[in-house]
Amino acid sequence: MRSVLADLFYRNAESFPDKEAIWCDGKTVTYKEMAALVSRYSNLLISLGVKYCDHIAIPMNNSIESVALFFAAADLGVCVVPLNPSLPFEAIKSAMDAGDIKHVIARRAFFAECEKNGGLYIDGFSICLDQEYPGTVSFDTINSMSSERPEISYDVDGSESLILTMTSGSTGTPKPIDISQQNKYDRSVAHVRVYNITKDDRILAATPLYHSLAERLVILPLIIGATSVLLPRFTPAIWLKCVEEQKPTFTIAVSAQLAQILETLKKPDAPKITSFRCIVSSSALLESAVKYELIDLLQCEFHEMYGASEVSTVTDICFQTAKNKQNSVGLPFDEAQIRILRDESESDFDTDCAVGEVGEIAVKSKLQCKGYYRQETMMQAAMFEGYFRTGDLGYLDEDGYLYFAGRKKEIIITGAINVYPHDIDVVIGRIPEIEECAAFSYPDDRLGEVVALAVVAKEDEEINIRSLKTYCARNLADFQQPHKIFVLDKLPKNTMGKLQRMAILDYIRESGIEES
After folding, report:
1. Which of 172, 212, 228, 500 could form a disulfide with 492 if both were Cys (CB 3.0 to 4.6 A apart)?
2. Which CATH code is given to the segment(s) 411-511?
């Protein structure tokens, strides 16, 4: 028995040999050419001694070769551990320890940086993807390998780990999210169903391949016979140029990217975007104003999804068809069930919140990952009666629609009152001069913590603090009023453009920014 993902891919290569399989950075390969590359990759790994269920670290750059590795790994029953190549060495080392890495495939610059910091200690091989580097095998060796799919002496039944996606816990210790081949397939099938994806679609991936979103958007098209359009890196200009030339029909984009794209689309010389039939926003909630402008400009089906890497996508909403639920993140996928749990200290009589009551979002899903690799206790701690506790806050309405209210750990408890930063962000975000904003917790001797507000002005605009305070007094409840306001040049974000609310105070202190 062989891998379901690899089997589907090779079947498509036989059925559509001359069809475009993937485009990336100006280079296109057909299904036939991609199949040959995957086979050569598999044969190269076998020649270097890769074993069933070995873990291979790859500090991922978006490339056709990186996508081919996913399918070679699937065919051989091997696990890929994508890493952000720009991480500090200690973080790389910690992730490799957590991921039980045996082999490494990386670029010359990565190996040089590691050597400068004392080197990596692994039991297996290292492949250098560009040029040559001492102690590594040149990727050019792949050209001497057979382009025939290799025979293997063992079964690959789908239960094998295919990808370990790294996320960090509250301690900063990496939590490798263990996703099996079958799980990756099931997640793809669910998205094909919900978004009506077919082999005629051109599917755009515009996030780094060390992120689960991009992995989904390059694996899915190649197992259904569609075309993958992989952006080498993201800027709004690069994205728009790619869309204009490659004419993708479907994408799932990070909300922070869509906000940047909107600003570019509003410029007089912006190209007209007409190829999309469906765009989905993910990762964080879109500002309402951004959402409505995008719907107006893009003239296609526009969705928003909610999910977590551990349980995949949980809910979806199409704004054109759910007009009276515009602030919701939608209804659950068929595979998912949602509970809203009260805080343990408040749950003497009932663990489940009433309709409209904010609590922690917990999810039971057929798309749930295998667990955290070699961290079973941590995964067990995240579970409650078979439901995964997401650490997110939200509530359900009478029709079962989910509403997101922020991260549980980001709640500001001031004078024993729970304040949800997201609610404040929505109100302050309506001020025309403000580009972005974030409410956050600030230590206070009397109340323990108080509400603070970080704001970033739009280009060529100035924020009048007195006017801002008056606006807050008129539009926020007493307990939501910011006690401190800081004007920043930017808000701290991760590599996906997602707000790092818990890092705002450190950013302010490290930058020496004073209260306005």
Report:
1. 500
2. 3.30.300.30
CA angle 12, 78, 206 (to 5 degrees): 60
- Any long-range contacts for 351-355 (C-beta under 8 Å, 24+ apart)? 351/384, 353/395, 353/396, 355/395, 355/396, 355/397, 355/398
What is the rounded average pLDDT for all residues in the chain? 92
| φ/ψ of residue 342, rounded to 5 | -75, 155
Whole-angstrom distance, CA of residue 258 vs CA of residue 497: 11
DSSP assignment string, 266-315: TSTTPPP----SEEEEESSPPPHHHHHHHHHHH-SEEEEEEEETTTEEEE
Among 234, 227, 182, which Cα is nearest to 211's?
A: 234
- In terms of DSSP bridges, do strands 371-372 and 359-365 run parallel, antiparallel, or are they unpaired? unpaired
Residue linked to tokens 């590795």: 69
Q: In this structure, are strands 434-444 and 448-457 parallel, antiparallel, or unpaired? A: antiparallel
Our measurement of the distance from residue 248's CA atom to the centroid of its chain's CA atoms, rounded to an integer in Å, reads: 20
Residue 284 has pLDDT above 50, yes or no: yes
Is the Cβ–Cβ distance between 80 and 12 less than 8 Å?
no
Sign of the four-CA dihedral 56, 38, 312, 2: negative
Give bridge partners of residue 407 from the DSSP assignment: 392
Non-local CB neighbours of 437 within 8 Å, separated by 6+ positions:
425, 428, 429, 453, 454, 455, 456
pLDDT beyond 90 at 416: no
Question: What's the CA gap between 508 and 497, in Å, rounded?
Answer: 18
Structure tokens at 290: 């951004």
Q: Which CATH class is domain 4-15+31-180?
A: alpha beta
In whole angstroms, what separates CA 317 from the centre of its chain?
18
- The encoded tokens of residue 388 equal 């995964």
51 by DSSP, 3-state: which? Answer: coil
Residues 6+ apart with CB under 8 A from 470: none
Domain boundaries defined on the chain: 4-15+31-180, 411-511
- Spatial distance between the Cα atoms of 184 and 61, rounded to a whole number of angstroms: 20
**Burial class of residue 153 in the structure, from the number of CB atoms within 10 Å of its CB (0-12 exposed, 13-18 middle, 19+ buried):** exposed
What is the spatial distance between Cα 100 and Cα 56, in angstroms, rounded to a whole number?
Answer: 9
- Banded model confidence at residue 171, pLDDT cuts 50, 70, 90: very low
Strands (E), 370-461: 371-372, 383-384, 387-396, 402-407, 412-414, 417-419, 434-444, 448-457
pTM: 0.87
| Nearest by Cα to 205 from 241, 152, 252, 256 | 252
Tokens of 51: 């074993």
Q: Provide mean pLDDT across the span 134-152.
A: 96
- Lowest mean pLDDT of 54-63, 347-356, 452-461, name the range: 347-356
